[in-house]
């Protein structure tokens, strides 16, 4: 970030400022000049001199460890809609989870007077659902997947504050008031297919309900785990819950086969309980051709064969991180280099 915002000279000029006079006085003579970065965080001094964090000056939010500029998502959505369309993107709470929601005003042609305007969430219609799905596909090719809203809300009018500005808090509160069994409609994932019937299907549907905070009765065998609000962390929890119930699922298979029906078909009943720390099974010891296996592993990992001592199964967390890294290059990979002074 210290180099500035890519291809945004005006934004860089606003955020990187010359040091104020009090800061210059603190710099010793002969030191190179420096510039200061305005983070956009709002704080307040307490009486004891400590700073209390109040929030953000802009619309930047953090979701699953990713910092997201809501304005950037809004601009990309506006580019796909007719001129004058009113939209807003907010980070909302859905049960114990958070998700990005896009609000689209459907009453632009006949706006309600500001003095009486009330913002009402409208029922999901077939036409709006089709429009939202088209927007979702278009955004997928323009911005990272974690920035694409998972909830699409038709709204009769944007709520305004007394100053005439968008009341984002009101939008968040309205979504939180929507019953869980209705929220799936706005996630573009209505119940599809028959109800779970087999023992494995029922178990998987129960796991989904626990992770997603839904009623089991609202889940169909053709519903999509991610359309109902699932994410990578939820997939890891699903793997663990399945394993504890003697079912085998992997994070990679969940991404490839995200419905109850497909998961039930791919899951295998296992007679082996979850591996414990005291009985972790080695994949090398007892193998028919240990040396041949070590040579194959050494060649694959590009390390000397004599350094391969043993091989053990991944934990569900490790497996999930590898699957996500393969899906999105650069994810969960960081190199932190620190230059320490010689006196330390």
Written account of the structure:
The structure is a single chain. This protein starts with 8 loop residues before the first helix and ends in a 17-residue tail after the last helix. It has helices spanning 9-15, 21-26, 70-78, 126-140, 168-176, 180-186, 199-212, 232-244, 251-256, 260-266, 290-301, 316-327; strands spanning 16-17, 36-37, 41-45, 51-56, 60-63, 66-69, 87-94, 97-105, 151-155, 247-248, 268-269. The protein has a three-stranded mixed sheet. Strands 1-2 form a two-stranded antiparallel ribbon. The chain contains twelve helices and eleven strands. By secondary structure, the chain is α+β, with helices and mostly antiparallel strands.
Key terms:
flat; 12 helices; 3-stranded mixed sheet; alpha+beta; 344 residues
How would you summarize this macromolecular structure in one to three sentences?
This protein has 344 residues and is an alpha+beta fold.
């Amino acid at each position: 970030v210290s180099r500035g915002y890519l291809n945004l000279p005006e934004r860089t000029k606003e955020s990187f400022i010359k040091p104020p006079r009090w800061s210059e006085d603190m710099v010793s003579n002969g030191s190179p000049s420096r510039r200061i970065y305005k983070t956009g965080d709002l704080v307040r001094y307490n009486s004891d001199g400590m700073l209390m964090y109040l929030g953000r000056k802009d619309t930047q939010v953090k979701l699953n460890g990713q910092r997201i500029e809501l304005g950037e998502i809004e601009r990309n959505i506006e580019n796909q809609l007719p001129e004058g369309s009113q939209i807003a993107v907010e980070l909302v709470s859905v049960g114990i989870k958070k998700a990005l929601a896009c609000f689209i005003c459907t009453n632009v042609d006949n706006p309600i007077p500001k003095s009486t305007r009330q913002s009402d969430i409208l029922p999901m219609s077939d036409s709006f659902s089709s429009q939202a799905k088209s927007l979702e596909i278009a955004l997928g090719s323009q911005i990272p997947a974690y920035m694409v809203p998972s909830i699409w809300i038709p709204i009769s009018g944007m709520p305004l504050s007394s100053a005439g500005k968008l009341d984002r808090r009101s939008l968040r509160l309205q979504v939180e008031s929507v019953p869980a069994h209705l929220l799936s409609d706005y996630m573009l994932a209505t119940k599809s297919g028959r109800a779970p019937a087999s023992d494995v299907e029922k178990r998987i549907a129960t796991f989904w309900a626990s992770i997603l905070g839904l009623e089991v009765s609202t889940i169909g065998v053709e519903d999509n785990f991610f359309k109902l609000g699932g994410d990578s962390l939820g997939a890891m929890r699903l793997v663990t819950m399945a394993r504890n119930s003697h079912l085998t699922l992997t994070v990679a298979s969940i991404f490839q086969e995200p419905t109850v029906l497909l998961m039930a078909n791919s899951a295998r009943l296992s007679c082996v309980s979850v591996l414990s720390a005291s009985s972790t099974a080695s994949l090398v010891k007892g193998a028919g051709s240990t040396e041949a296996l070590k040579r194959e592993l050494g060649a694959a990992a590009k390390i000397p064969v004599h350094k391969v001592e043993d091989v053990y199964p991944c934990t569900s967390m490790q497996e999930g991180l590898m699957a996500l890294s393969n899906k999105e290059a650069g994810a969960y990979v960081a190199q932190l280099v620190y230059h320490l002074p010689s006196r330390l």
